[in-house]
Write a structure and sequence with these properties.
Number of strands: 7
Oligomer: single chain
Bound molecules: zinc ion
Distance between the termini: 37 Å
Shape: globular
Radius of gyration: 18 Å
Strand content: 25-35%
Order of helices and strands: HEEEEHHHEHEHE
Largest sheet: 5 strands, mixed
Strand order of the largest sheet: 4-1-7-5-6
């Protein structure tokens, strides 16, 4: 029986090829409360409530940061920028995202593309999608075509449906330079 998987040398080559691409996943949730700005993808969106958090609570920037870190098994932004550190109080999450990108570049990786989905019953996010993509592209020093932001509702179900909070998932593909 001939199979390249039985040949150890070929298998090592395959593994080396595989490590030139790395995929990461990120997930984040923030509670919606009164008296806070609603910052998403660096856009200050007018809404009766805002996201609660130690930083600016930009749930989209956080999920994307975690997906990039996850691709190289570098932990998450909670580990990198702990909320016990007063330096990060009210921090601009896009600046933190920029630092995450610098970190993976130091390790010899570049961003292929990022895809993300924000689950929010309200406010309407569609008019702000392009601005969010432009902000994230600038923070990550990538082209806007490399970052996708989608918005959906959860049909009034669960905590996002009841407008108690907003969740975001993101995936990032990195490649070795
Ligand atoms: Zn967060």
């Amino acid at each position: 029986m001939h199979s390249k998987f039985l040949n150890l040398t070929n298998r090592k080559d395959d593994i080396n090829k595989m490590t030139s691409f790395r995929i990461g996943h990120g997930y984040d949730v923030h509670r919606l409360v009164e008296g806070r700005k609603f910052i998403l993808g660096g856009v200050d969106i007018p809404y009766e409530k805002g996201l609660l958090g130690h930083s600016d609570a930009d749930v989209l920037a956080h999920a994307i940061s975690d997906s990039i870190l996850g691709a190289l098994a570098l932990g998450d932004i909670g580990k990198l920028f702990p909320d016990t550190d007063s330096t990060f109080k009210g921090a601009d999450s896009l600046v933190l995202l920029g630092e995450v990108c610098s970190l993976i570049r130091e390790k010899g990786y570049e961003i292929g593309n990022i895809d993300s989905t924000v689950c929010a019953q309200a406010p309407k996010l569609f008019p702000h999608i392009l601005s969010m993509r432009e902000n994230i592209a600038k923070a990550c020093q990538i082209d806007v075509s490399q970052i996708s932001v989608k918005a959906t509702t959860e049909e009034s179900l669960g905590f996002t449906g009841e407008k108690l909070g907003i969740s975001t998932t993101a995936v990032s593909l990195l490649y070795k330079i």
